[in-house]
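Practice problem: Heme-copper oxidase subunit III
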Amino acid sequence: MDSYLVSEQLHEHTHDEEGNKMFGFIVFLLSESVIFLSFFAGYILYKTTTPNWLPIGVSGLEVKEPAINTVVLVASSFVIYLAERALQSHKLMQYRLYLFTTMAMGTYFLVGQGIEWSNLTFGFTSGVFGGTFYLLTGFHGLHVLTGILLQTIILVRSFIPGNFDSGHFGVNATSLFWHFVDVIWIILFVLIYLWQ
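Answer key — structure tokens:
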């Protein structure tokens, strides 16, 4: 009888391993949010208190190309969502196509950011604005690159037979990370490009 009770208690205390992993990943994203929020607060503080905010000879930033890059990056959130849905429906080829498209859109964004950087007339050491501009956009760009690398991993793993039999944590976490990166960029775009 005692062994029966112990067996019953063991069954009652099973853990939701995928749920625990996702909880841990959300805590990680919240910690990343704190870093970005501190950067945003610093940017706002410096912008509102620094005389001669823009470097000498700079009247503002070009908005058109960054706006196009923003549309592409934000649209990629919808595409990775479609990839998740395709995987849930066991449509592996559609999943791979949507995921590859998301990766291509993220790469387009990074290339666009690189082109923008190469055409700027100021550098990282060009006053407070130059330092904060490159810090914010560069740190975000590092997150975009990380997201593309994560997507590459889950795309390659989709070719391993039975890879998704134990769940979709990697796909769900990567998708959540990508949405996070997109939301952060929207805030950055408003702060840096629209609020000039």
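Discussion: The mean pLDDT is 90. Students who identified this feature from the tokens alone can consider the problem solved.
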